Amino acid sequence: METSTKRVIPSLSNLPRPLYNRHESLAPGSWTEEHSHPWCQLSYAASGVLGVRTPAGDYVAPPRFAVWIPPDLPHQVVNRRQTEMRSLYVTPAAATALPAECCVLEISPLVRELIRRIGELPVEYDEAGPAGRLVAVLLDELASLRQASFRLPLPKDRRAVMICALLQEHPEDGRSLAEWATQAGASERTLARLFVKETGLGFGEWRQRLRMLLSLDALEAGEGIAAVALAHGYESTSAFIAAFRSIFGLTPGELRARSAA
User: How far apart are CA 63 and CA 216, in angstroms?
Assistant: First the structure.
């Protein structure tokens, strides 16, 4: 990451209403310290790509997607390139129908417009009036959204963590697990077992998912698919597209079309 900007976490002791809205323009390389709060959070990428890191894994939201974060979950929000983020803080009492686990939600056109409209409301909106009813509709719609597979589980063993950190900086690195084992000071068999036990994925599957998630930034920035494929360890564009579809259920071009819609 070429630049790094530490963001200040808003100081709130409680929410003034069941839903509190914030809009931020995030410079490339922005990040927050790990933190938690007693309310839920929806981090929506109006443009750019948002990343949320939790102890259990990384969650990535390209445009028109959002990361849902339950209360009291330690997390960091990061972005590699310029990103427009809308954050909705929701009291647990108002979010009982929403997921209990962190996840990525695919934002529908209706929810997108509701988020935009609610962004225009005063902080202390009238809960009993039209504004309160609008918020209630948004919460109902959020509960019906489809979850997307933009998640990367993370291991905890220090040897596997070292490998993951290096691959996140250099996703094009094609070394085999046996070669990584030599550097990590563990046997290939031990590492293979660690990845399956701690992430639920074999090493090859984990690396493929990492590459696909990291490629979202470059694709959103408009870089050519062939160049993106090469930068993320694929010599063949067709192989990259096939891997992308196998994980996300759509091609890079189809994802771009949704983002631009």
Answer: 10
- In the chain, where are the structural domains located? 5-148, 154-260
Strand partners, 67: 43, 104
Q: What pLDDT, in 10s, does the model give residues 51-65?
A: 999 998 999 999 889
Mean pLDDT of 34-61: 93
Q: Are 81 and 1 in contact (CB under 8 A)?
A: no
Name the CA dihedral angle for 205, 259, 143, 80, rounded to a multiple of 10 degrees: 60
User: What is 5-148's CATH topology?
Assistant: Jelly Rolls (2.60.120)
Tokens 């036990």 belong to residue: 197
pTM: 0.88
Domain at 154-260, CATH homologous superfamily: Homeodomain-like (1.10.10.60)
Dump strand ranges (E) for 11-64. 19-26, 30-31, 40-47, 50-54, 57-61
From the CB of residue 122, how many other CB atoms can be counted at a distance below 10 Å? 10
